TrEMBL record:
PANTHER family membership: CYTOCHROME P450, CYTOCHROME P450 98A9
Organism: Miscanthus lutarioriparius
Keywords: Heme, Iron, Metal-binding, Monooxygenase, Oxidoreductase
Pfam family of the protein (one): p450
Domain of life of the source: Eukaryota
Binding site for heme: C267
Name of the molecule in the record: Uncharacterized protein
Amino acid sequence: MRNILRMAVGDKWLGIYTSEEGEAFRRTLDEAFAVTSGLRNNIGEWVPWLGRLDVQSFTRRMMRVHEKLDRFSSQILDEHETDRRRCARDGGGEFTATRLEEEMEARLTRGGAKAFILDIIAGGTETGATTMEWAMAELLRRPDAIAATTAELGRVVGRGRWVTERDLPALPYLDAVLKETMRLHPVAPLLAPRHAREDRVVAGYDIPTGTRVLVNAWAVARDPASWPDAPEAFRPERFLAGDAAEDVDVRGAHFELLPFDVGRRMCPAYNLAMKEMAAALANLLHGFTWRLPDGVAPEDVSMEEFFGLAMSRKVPLVAIAEPRLPEHLYAGVD
């Protein structure tokens, strides 16, 4: 999350360790995610006439969050508009400042710029963090998978430094762990809505033109027809060389695995997301020895799901980490 915020809005707005405004911004983002996640329990969505009464205060909470985010977005834009000339001159600066320079030609409205910023944050923070938590949960349920990942990291990286982006292509097992995590736990189980462009018959059902179509990526990724080898099991090895799914990728070419959607509605930042998650997960496993709390067996780890803005864990993961690299490498790590 910190990397995405740094790229999108700058260091000041990262939250803890940076500024008071940044920490308030982070708290507002957390509140926004919490409100969105709770919408499925909004009785007004199921009984429309009760929606006007706002008996659970969802509307009031969303309005408060909207006002806070709008205020923060205005402040961020004002600051970056001031820096725009410097960024154009020096060729540096954060993503938002650079994007605002292009705004003059694209004629993006101020409201559009605010939405653009929040889209980047919403699409690139909670989703990645949720995937990371699912990955750690699955690995803690399979100690042999953690051992295989750390052994690969030891061979490629060694114990004298942290993992960098340059190391990622040489870490196929780590890549397989991420793919398998996204197969079993897609953060967006229902892909972006689509409309049928022509009359079709699918599995015996008539689908007329204009029908709204929702693709259940969660079900497809667990379908025995696509994944005949234990589709419900966490088995990263299925994506390694010599296995049936070794060539299956997440970039939309294989319909049995669509964590980033496909076609024109595919996530435009999937490449960045894969690198960010891979680097973060690699360093978590390379830098620390992980275990479950005393008295908790691997099979006791809850894997219940909760669907909100992203499909997160219903029960937060609790694990114990112990440093495993030389002490001097942890200086300045937060």
